[in-house]
Amino acid sequence: MNKEKLISHYLQNVRETKHQELLSKIIDYILDERVKEVRFSSLYRYFNEKYSKEDILFIIQKLILGKYKLLDIAYTFYDDENIEKSFSLTKKQFKEVEKNNSYIHPDTGEIIPIDIFRKNTTFYFIPQRNFLSSVVTS
What we know:
By secondary structure, the protein is an alpha+beta fold.
């Protein structure tokens, strides 16, 4: 698949011009920059705050839930005791924590209550490399 066909697919579901423009730019960013992860705050800064946070989240949602999943969500838990220590979680692991209402610390085995876990966890997006490697950018 080529990049233009991919962008065209997503544009079918985006009505507003500003969203269409943003969608194309985010796809370009993901393909051209070959980023390993996409953080919401990084995108906001990358576009010099030209687009609202709501607009960026709207487009990210399209890229996560679309027929071609360009992005997947992942999480990082930061240890209260050692802020430099962090632990990555997949979407499946995060759902398991939510279901159990607690997180078992990977190093200490301590049970972390859900409210502390949520406070110390951030999310980010991972470009789906298997799919993206099949997209021809030229």
